[in-house]
Amino acid sequence: MKVSKRAQEVPPSATIAVTARAQQLKAQGVDVIGFGAGAPDFDTPDYIKDAAIAALKAGKTKYTAAAGIIELRTIIAEKLRKENGLEYTPEEIIVSIGGKHSLYEAMQAVLDLGDEVILPTPYWVTYPETIKLAGAVSVIIQTDKANSYKMTTEQLRNAITDKTAMVVINSPNNPGGFTYTPEELAALAKVLQGTDVIVLSDEIYEKLIYGDTKFVSFASLSEDAYNRTLTLNGFSKAFSMTGWRLGYTAGPLEVIKAMGRLQSHMTSNPVTFGQYAAIEALGEPAAEAIEKMRVEFERRGKYMASRLNSIEDVICNEPTGAFYCFPDVSGHYGRTINGVEIGGSMDFAEALLEQANVALVPGLPFGCDNNVRLSFACSLEQITKGLDRIEKWLNQ
Ligand code: PMP
């Protein structure tokens, strides 16, 4: 059967492809260490599961308002006010089926054919595809290792044209593991003043920050920033709820309404009993549940980065957010390891998986071929074993 040009142009998610290959090897009995995952390895806290069970038993099994139940949007508004210093009414918030869905819908709601979207590297693989599916064009900004892979004000200023409709900011960053400081974000916000550029601020990793890193919501920087920002967040990362598929967007009423119209035809509401559980997720026990995971991630990230840095020709910044290390391994490009020439990150990832049975994600689909991404959403024991293998593999 014919497949549309639109669908043909979308490659499968590179992160999912590596995980699939690792699973295939595992199924064949190979002892694979997986650093590919983009999901916390912790289970969803029991208090959230119990709330979903209670909602099911209470018959919360029917359609709801397409944008999500008002009780959930109200508690998200409260969360944004208390934790992020952002004032939104429940009508200015839409709950979708995961942050990915929120992102897709946001792009569809604001972008027109030929619009330009500024996308700094490294970028999460889904951004360019959702931009393309909205008929817009990604304008890639190649960031510098020396600036911790963060976009500079000069780079942003130079990328803006009269076609620029949006800039995507993802902090804490997947795959980079870095976080913009409040000052850096304020400087970027200043560059946008006097333009019509929308900021899509993906804040899904806001709770996973380390050391003395401070998180600030882009929209809270100034009135100007507030008016131009769509704030995207979700339950997957902070609450270990990846399988629940719950994300949300807050922003100007006309955009949220447009997203709501699209959602009413695309999916209708997010899963009903999940929404009731999400209300509880944001309740009292949240802080403690999140902190437990955060502390463990911090310990693992520090260890992983120090192990990577101790390998010759591997350079890794200590992560300040999310759960990824993003080392530059290009010092090994041009080598031949066990008969395989390592030309770039794709070769690196493939050879490492086949020869040393460690799965990680090549940097190329994130826009950085010099790097690879290792997730530390796995046990310290796994990290130790995997790093031993990588070290041995590179040192031969
Ligand atoms: N934004 C970023 C930067 C992510 O890494 C992810 C998950 N990989 C998401 C959004 C979306 O997550 P979900 O669809 O599970 O809410």
Which tags fit this structure?
396 residues; alpha/beta; 3-stranded antiparallel β-sheet; 14 helices; 14 strands; binds 4'-deoxy-4'-aminopyridoxal-5'-phosphate
Folded structure, characterized:
The radius of gyration is 21 Å and the shape is globular. Helix 3 (46-57) crosses helix 11 (272-281), helix 5 crosses helix 10 and helix 12 packs parallel to helix 14. It has a seven-stranded mixed sheet, sandwiched between helices. The protein has 396 residues and is an alpha/beta fold. The mean pLDDT is 96. It is 42% helix and 13% strand. The chain binds 4'-deoxy-4'-aminopyridoxal-5'-phosphate. Residues 38, 98-100, 124, 170, 174, 202, 204, 234, 236, 242, 247 line the site of 4'-deoxy-4'-aminopyridoxal-5'-phosphate.
Helices and strands in order:
Elements: H1 5-8, H2 14-27, E1 33-34, H3 46-57, H4 70-84, E2 93-96, H5 99-110, E3 116-120, H6 126-133, E4 137-141, H7 153-159, E5 164-170, H8 182-192, E6 198-202, H9 223-228, E7 229-234, E8 247-250, H10 253-266, H11 272-281, H12 286-309, E9 324-325, E10 336-337, E11 340-341, H13 345-356, E12 358-359, E13 361-362, E14 372-375, H14 380-395
Parallel strand pairs: 1-12, 3-4, 3-5, 5-6, 6-7
Antiparallel strand pairs: 2-8, 7-8, 9-14, 10-11, 13-14
Helix pairs in contact: 3-11, 4-11, 5-6, 5-10, 12-14
The chain binds 4'-deoxy-4'-aminopyridoxal-5'-phosphate.
